[in-house]
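Worked example 2:
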Amino acid sequence: MKTAEKRARELRQELAHHNYRYYVLDSPEVSDAQYDRLMRELQELEGQYPQLATPDSPTQRVGGEAAEKFEKVVHRAPMLSLANVFNDEEFSDFHERILKLSNASDVTYVCEPKLDGLAITLRYENGTFVQGATRGDGTTGEDVTGNLRTVRSLPLQLLPQDGVKVPPVVEVRGEVFIRKEDFKKLNEKREEEGEPLFANPRNAAAGSLRQLDPKMTASRPLSIYLYEYVPTEGMPSFETHTEKLEHLKKLGLPVNRHVRAKGLDGVRAAHEASRKGRHELPFEVDGMVVKIDEEDLRKRLGQVSKSPRWAVAYKFPPEEESTLVELIDVQVGRTGALTPVAHLKPVKVGGVTVSRATLHNEDELRRKDVRAGDTVFVRRAGDVIPEIVSVVPSKRPADSKPYEFPKNCPVCGAKTAKDDEGAIIRCTGASCPAQLVEKIRHFASRTAMDIDGMGDKLASSLVSNGLVKTFADLYALNKEKLLSLERMGEKSAENLLAAIDRSKQTTQRRFLYALGIRHVGEATAKALAESFPEVKQLYSADIDAITRVKDVGPTMAQVLFAFFQEPQNRAAIDALLAAGVTPAPPQVTTSGPFAGKTVVLTGGMSGMSRDQAKEEIERRGGKVSGSVSKKTDFVVAGEDAGSKLKKAQELGVRILDEQAFLKLLQGEARG
């Protein structure tokens, strides 16, 4: 047994070393066959002695048990997103801002390929990988530790080089992606098995990492590169980003390739070289990430909103090819927008085969005058979405005719209508199958009917399984129907049914907002509820009566009138009322600290969202304004409050911090 234990330890160390040589240094010392022999020997040993199988063993990458859902992970430091620049002039503006903000004469940058994958964060404790999560909204992501363990280029145990010490905690950020060759093989295999093909490596990588079954993730050829770390105790400080990346490599981590560039000219040269060599890279890129190298300068520059001031994504210009438009049809999106789509003779654009291209909307279709049979130039906008740039008039067939946009939705038959800017044509049907998932999600959202637990995935599952075809079908769900859904547990079903039942008692404002009428936000829904306390009053309201509602102009009045005249929409509302949904008319509050007051919200609060704060103020008879003036009664200043707080101080407006605001809401403070 001791001999087997010693040999297993040796094999784990040897295989980890070869993984490091292969994935980090790109300099393997053994052939694939030799590596496989070592792996088989370790598998046989662990099979004979199961107690020898450690969590960080390379044999454990096959994936564990499937999860019911991903747990949430709050990031210890925000995962920021990058602002984009698309040409030399825009990058020059970015560079000049850096010089101005830093009072420097020049700046050194680090340039990295902008990987087209999924951002992740990894955490190691005492050198062992313990947790990994997606970026999510930048503050909270999803725990995908089990899936990340299956990624072969991710070290399960850090292998420090050159005498580098491993601190107690190492936290790093990077990108999961699929290499071009691996993506090609993956799609070839799916085609052989009759599975639908992945559209691009980015979608394939993101979908693979977010599989609930790690074994499915393990079957996908994912790779990983790292490009940043979160400062932790015991981790040395660095003067430059370059030094930091070299240190991460010495910890045995796979670091994204990078070059240093001095000033504007250096970045221009690096960007040109990167653009020309993009197709030689083993993975898809859509630009170059440019970061300031000096760490101290980064700290001084900080961030704006959710993006750092010290970095930018310098996108590549799109590539164009010519091809033939075989036909044009219309697709109905999740929000009811009718989008014309050109079906093309397949052509390779930027290394990707393109067979369809968006024409955006009717106005764009008319402006470019694209017709079936036309020869057109196609590009991948932002190197992602194919679009038609222009038509070649000299090659147009003599019998070609302009495309006629449908007057009725091609999916449900409801009338179509242009939005108030006249650019987008939308289906007006409340129960249109093409947009039902999005409508159900909106209907159930917190500021609408507030059905807790009804997210995108569940809404999609209910619709795809035929359990929900209209809003009212939600109120006909029962435990038996819900338990027929994949990964729906009994407790979850009970909680959802309870939330649906609670939503029956709602307000007229919430009900009107939940219907998803185009351009009807919370404020308009509130104004409508005050003018029409009962929803059926809107059935007989003419355009003049609707126009008299506060902040409702002639165009919006026409949209509202058309919505309530559409038989499909009336049927949906009637069915909801028949199902027991009871919208209560608004109640006017004339007393209390917020009654008749104008309040401005600025900064973030930990106790509630800005939407919740707004609703609480309005429920107490107050009005929430977007700007500070002498007429403002209160300014509620949360974390990172900006110019509104400063203006309130200048005008002498009363300022409430979050604690004082919450006390005032609860009636524990006076005046």
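The chain has a mean pLDDT of 86. The chain has 24 helices and 26 strands.
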